[in-house]
């Protein structure tokens, strides 16, 4: 017995032991993993050929226990929706959709007869596909129509930034990979999207749904906009809907029309088949009857990008970020300055933050910043948060000002008066003293003590990191020995296992005549990271 068969026997035994229907689990295509199947998939006798399901081949829908057990979150949603919509189901006024238009003669995917001929040669998603004409018409719109193709390309481009995180969350919950098509349909992969009905974020969660799944929705802080937090909540919600309704078509429709709304329609019509509900008078709102076909069409296109000549579309790269604990009340301007970025980009990395300062959640806020600025921010942020060491330059620049690239107002004049300087992080070696380090870097003991908030008589410990202000003329000497010295650039993660070198590797220059910090020098220059000669200096 090979390993895959043995694993199948073990899972079979486990399924029988807990009373789940046979076929509830099946191998994930091409991945050697296991995913949960919908009941309609599980009851099909032959293996899936990857060509979709025609109406005549569709399995009998599994009964939906509308009055049975439901998750705590779904129960909270039902109660909330009952209070919101006492008189009737939500009213829908959808924007004009491509199905209003007639297909041009000869359009390949406009299958008005419902024969499913357009499926031929296409790779099907890991969601059940019904040969419904609406799916073909949406495929035609997004893949062949000029305007629709332009819309889809913009969605596809933006999706590269967040799709990996969304798909990772789907895998973690053992949900179909192609449910990511829902995000295309809901927001076009824009975490700041807001609907007229009040839904927000990548997954367009309504406030009551978000709160039911543990998200904070407030004026200054809205976790529906957080890619990570909203993805966890939305995938849990989808999983709950699937567990309740038994098919992905009904689960997706419930995601659109609302959990209670779908329960009411199943009760009132006596039908538990999505495609039947679409045809019944008053069965489903028009928008919901088009919602599932659109999601399935997008999923099909995403599985056939080369077929539709969309594989050449450039996609945005995911943000390379790191997490930084920031105290409540810290301004976004100061954090951006410390991290070497702009306030605008900081909000792009933290779309859930809706104010210009960190909200007070009773604890430090985990802020996403550019990964390249993490070490720098750890050194500089405490100094900027200390009002005694702040010059207010962050208040003199706009939201788009990049502290890692742009020229700081008045910097050239300050440099002309006192000379440019840099900051390096130095790892202390065995038995080194402040006097030796200061002499090696051409600075003063008082300068190092004040910069690092040390006691005057402090004894240095091996491995301790010191922030040292180094003059421009000294940097030329240090750059040549940088590979051997214990210098850790603030814009890179500190590696404490680098070879230890002696301060003798640094140039032995005359000690600076200044006994204390030059009060006339801008504190800006004291916080510049190490920059190789000839490179543009980042600003803080």
Notable characteristics:
540 residues, Lysozyme, 4 domains, 3-stranded antiparallel β-sheet, 19 helices, elongated, disordered N terminus, disordered C terminus
Annotate the secondary structure layout.
Blueprint: H1 3-18, E1 25-27, E2 34-36, H2 39-42, H3 72-84, H4 133-143, H5 146-172, H6 181-187, H7 207-212, H8 227-245, H9 248-257, H10 259-269, H11 274-279, H12 286-302, E3 321-326, H13 332-339, H14 343-349, E4 365-370, H15 374-385, H16 411-418, E5 421-427, H17 434-440, H18 445-451, E6 465-471, H19 472-481, E7 487-488
Helix pairs in contact: 4-5, 4-12, 5-8, 6-12, 8-9, 9-10, 9-12, 13-14, 13-15, 17-18
Task: Describe what is shown at a glance.
This protein is mainly alpha-helical. The chain is 38% helix and 6% strand. The longest helix has 27 residues, at 146-172.
What structural class results from the helix and strand content? Answer: mainly alpha
* Tally of distinct domains: 4
The top level CATH class name of the largest domain: Mainly Alpha
- The CATH topology label of the largest domain is Lysozyme
As a whole number of angstroms, the C-alpha radius of gyration is 30 Å
- Report the sheet with the most strands, covering strand number, pairing sense and barrel closure: 3 strands, antiparallel
Order of helices and strands: HEEHHHHHHHHHHHEHHEHHEHHEHE
How much strand? 5-15%
Number of strands: 7
- CATH architectural type of the largest domain: Orthogonal Bundle
* Distance between the first and last residues' Cα: 63 Å
- Strand arrangement across the biggest beta sheet: 6-5-7
> What is the averaged pLDDT score?
73
Number of helices: 19
Q: Bin the helical content.
A: 25-40%
Instruction: Describe the global form.
Output: elongated
Low-confidence stretches: 1-60, 84-101, 411-419, 490-540
């Amino acid at each position: 017995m090979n390993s895959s068969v043995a694993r199948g026997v073990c899972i079979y035994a486990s399924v029988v032991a807990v009373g789940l229907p046979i076929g509830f689990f099946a191998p994930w295509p091409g991945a050697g993993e296991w995913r949960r199947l919908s009941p309609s998939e599980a009851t099909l006798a032959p293996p899936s050929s990857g060509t979709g399901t025609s109406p005549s081949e569709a399995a009998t829908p599994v009964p939906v226990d509308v009055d049975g057990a439901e998750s705590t979150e779904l129960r909270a949603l039902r109660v909330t929706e009952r209070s919101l919509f006492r008189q009737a189901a939500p009213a829908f006024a959808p924007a004009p959709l491509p199905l209003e238009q007639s297909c041009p003669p000869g359009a390949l995917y406009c299958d008005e007869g419902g024969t499913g001929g357009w499926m031929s040669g296409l790779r099907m998603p890991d969601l059940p596909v019904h040969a419904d004409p609406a799916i073909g018409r949406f495929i035609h719109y997004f893949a062949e129509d000029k305007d629709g193709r332009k819309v889809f390309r913009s969605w596809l481009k933006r999706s590269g930034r967040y799709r990996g995180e969304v798909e990772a969350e789907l895998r973690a919950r053992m949900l179909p990979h192609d449910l990511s098509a829902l995000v295309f349909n809901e927001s076009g992969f824009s975490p700041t999207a807001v609907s007229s009905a009040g839904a927000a974020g990548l997954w367009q969660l309504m406030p009551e749904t978000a709160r039911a799944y543990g998200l904070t929705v407030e004026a200054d802080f809205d976790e529906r906009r957080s890619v990570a937090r909203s993805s966890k909540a939305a995938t849990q919600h989808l999983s709950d809907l699937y567990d309740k309704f038994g098919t992905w078509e009904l689960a997706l429709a419930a995601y659109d029309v609302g959990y209670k709304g779908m329960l009411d329609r199943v009760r009132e019509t006596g039908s538990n088949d999505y495609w039947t509900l679409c045809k019944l008078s008053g069965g489903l709102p028009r928008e919901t009857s088009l919602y599932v076909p659109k999601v399935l069409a997008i999923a099909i296109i995403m599985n056939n990008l080369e077929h539709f000549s969309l594989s050449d579309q450039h996609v945005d790269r995911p943000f390379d970020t790191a997490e930084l604990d920031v105290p409540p009340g810290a301004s976004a301007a100061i954090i951006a300055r410390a991290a070497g970025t702009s306030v605008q980009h900081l909000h792009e990395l933290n779309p859930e933050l809706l104010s210009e300062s960190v909200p007070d959640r009773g604890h430090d806020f985990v802020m996403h910043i550019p990964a390249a600025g993490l070490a720098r921010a750890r050194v500089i942020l405490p100094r900027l948060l200390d009002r005694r060491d702040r010059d207010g330059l962050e208040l003199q620049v706009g939201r788009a000002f990049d502290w890692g690239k742009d020229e700081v107002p008045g910097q050239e004049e300050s440099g002309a008066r006192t000379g440019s300087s840099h900051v390096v992080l130095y790892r202390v070696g065995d038995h080194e003293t402040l006097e030796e380090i200061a002499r090696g870097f051409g600075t003063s003991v008082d300068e190092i003590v004040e910069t690092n908030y040390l006691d005057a008589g402090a004894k240095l410990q091996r491995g301790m990191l010191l922030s040292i202000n180094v003059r421009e003329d000294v940097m030329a000497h240090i750059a040549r020995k940088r590979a051997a010295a214990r210098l850790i650039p603030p814009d890179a993660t500190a590696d404490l296992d680098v070879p230890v070198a002696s301060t003798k590797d640094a140039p032995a220059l005359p000690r600076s005549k200044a006994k204390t910090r030059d009060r006339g020098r801008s504190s800006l220059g004291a916080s510049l990271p190490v920059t190789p000669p000839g490179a543009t200096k980042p600003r803080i």
